[in-house]
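Students often ask why we bother predicting the structure of a whole assembly rather than each chain alone. The short answer is interfaces. A chain on its own may look different once its partners are present, and contacts between molecules only exist in the joint model. In this exercise we take two input lines together and write out one structure for the complete complex. Read the inputs first and try to guess which parts will touch.
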Amino acid sequence: MSEPKPGLVVRATIDAIELVAQYLDTTLTQASVPMMDATRIQLAVEEAVTNVVTHGYEEGEGDVSVLCTIEGNVVTVIITDSGHAFDPTSIPPADVTADIDHRKIGGLGVHLIRSVMDEISYQRIEDKNQFTMIKQVSDSDIDF
Amino acid sequence: MSELLEVTTRNIDDISIVDVSGRMDAATSRDVEVALTRLIDAGTTKIVFNAGDLTYISSSGLRVILASLKKVRQCKGELALAALQPAPLEVIKMTGFDRIFTLFETPEQAIEKLKE
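Now the answer. The structure tokens for the assembled complex follow.
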């Protein structure tokens, strides 16, 4: 399989969050993706990138790449890093019915990714994590 | 403070209103955490989180408000969410946080409730 061309490559630190958000905003706006769909995609990507920043490397040691492509109404985002092997699709679903005393934040990020994206998949390719998320966006600007 | 997020606090009687504007993400949520912690540590037990200008919240933001809610409820207090916009409201509902928090359409409604 050929290596995906990176759209944005940044150090996997907390500063990556804003840079990724700007990259996505530019890409999705240029493609006229409706605002609510764009926000949902922003959310899913932030959750995935935050996982890399938080757990992927020893502090500041590696990069994360984010590639967002749009074909017709389908937005595909591929997040690649060379950190510890981590499969987001293997995280058990968070219990979103738990009361306040039993509520955990762990797993909520992946829950949000699964909730807003249509398809997610993970591969470990030559010491790299490759996490792909796909969403079909609506035609109309009227989201709600 | 990040340019992407602004947090201000005001008081009406013994109720603190935290006005949050912009994005609460992994990078910016810390600023909200600082503001809420400061209030709670100073003894505030009635807080209205005014999300009228909050455009975005991720799980990092949810962590902050959940932690603050737990702290105030330990002191028999309350942290109410007000004026959630469509995108953050969707996140609150997707994660079941609407079952944990009390939601209000406006900060004024939240303030009236907390006065009771």
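Check your guess against this: The mean pLDDT of chain B is 96.
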